[in-house]
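For the sake of clarity, the format in which proteins appear in this thesis is described at this point. The record quoted next illustrates the convention:

___
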Amino acid sequence: MTAPAQLVTRFAPSPTGFLHLGHAHAALLAWRAAREAGGRFLLRIEDIDSTRCRPEFTEAILEDLCWLGLDWDGPVRVQSRHMADYERTLSALRQRNLLYPCFCTRGEIAREIAASASAPHGPDGPLYPGICLRLSAARVEARLAQGEPHALRLNMSRGLRCLDQPLSFEDAVRGRVVCDPARFGDVVLARKEIPASYHLCVTHDDARDGVTMVTRGDDLLPATDLHRLLQALMNWPEPRYAHHRLLADAAGRRLSKRDGAPTLRDLRASGATPAEIRSLAGWPD
């Protein structure tokens, strides 16, 4: 009889600001799940977006987690140090003709969508209308040879044809969930300023690190459809998922950096203890 796989969870913040109570809730959920099961808890810094991520926030994340009483197993994976890993994945998808270059500006895409009588929408807004998918091979080669800036998009219809069965995933709250990755359209997996997308990096790293349960906010539930497609295309294992509630303020708004949610270091400066923060984050001792 095969022994059950060790539970491996992770916390993967982006260093675009200081941690707040919502982050503490997410980190504690993953940490406790691993520790109570005798498993492993990993820490990953998702800093691919060099336009927004800052090293001082990475240092602050490590400091806040230690102050909160969390420990992790193995070295911290900092995504920006492993760009070659993501380029290899992009190369594998290109070799299977599952990616295509997109030279469109945001303005060109917006005008094409505005001119359409019924532009389809997905979880992230209007879907890409396929402008560059219609370019001839000769035209694509000419624009690439000229060094024209471009993104790499997933050819969704071609990717779906690679599947031999429908996709689904197991969620701790919702049970078995059927996926519909087509609703994302031809998503961008790389662009000039961000050479690998969140979707590609997170699925790559979860597979590489042997993560068996992905715990994250339920705002990312729709993205799991796309992640399952990438896992299937790359023959990566399927983890279980636990999409948890998002903490909200007194007005019912989800806690976020953008809306100025109180940071852990602000709360610490006001005299809060780690035990009090854990309680406020929904995890009393």
